[in-house]
Amino acid sequence: MIQPMLAVKYVILLSLMSGVSSSAFASETDQYFAWGKAVPDSTKELNKFYNKIMANVIANVNSKTDRKQYSCERVASFISKNSVREAHLIELFPWRVEGVYMVPGTPAEILRFRSESMYGNPDASHIRLLTSFSGPTIEVNSVRHGTDKPQHFFGTGYRYFQTYLKAKAEGASEEEALIKSIEYGIETENGVLGLKVGGVFSPGDLEANFQGSEFYRDLCTRENPLLTQDSQGEFSVRVPGFDWKQYVNPYWDES
Fold first, then answer.
1. How many domains does the chain have?
2. pTM given for the model
């Protein structure tokens, strides 16, 4: 089970977070450390958690008297903002979601992880010492990945979606708009979400980003969008709702 004692690991990090952009705190995950260890799947728990976030956002929008003026894209921005906030917290404290398992997940594993992880002794000259930390591994849809991936999915994935919409509005074809959004993601991995902070260019991050943009397209721009609005201006999510199984794939696994 998840051990709340892991919180000790992040006390200093949290004290540094005030005044520094959250995008600068990019965790890297040594998934090789989890090889041979049991990591029960957490799909059900994380589906329930994020569907609840979306339900709360939609309930808040539906309480507005001017809700008829809200576009799906505007509601998507609220879903992104709220989901990213929680994803950042989960990146630091995965046990916030009851039933989520991770490795390392016990005090003994944490001590071993600190000394045996490939990120255990980063180069003291690198900026990552101040802005990055080693995140644990979780499993969703039978795929193991780092706890940073939901943030990429909901956060950078939304910026992909914005880039896609802007390109489409400027006359780009579907393929051209998708390429522009992917190029944006490559820029982020070369910058503050990758090489410049963590020292790592991650194809797994890029895949999580792209699948996040696919989620927002599913939400708003597909033929049968996940998010609908009735004649009274009230929004709802089509049953069965959001499901990580539609988006998490083996390319998220960085081992």
1. 1
2. 0.83
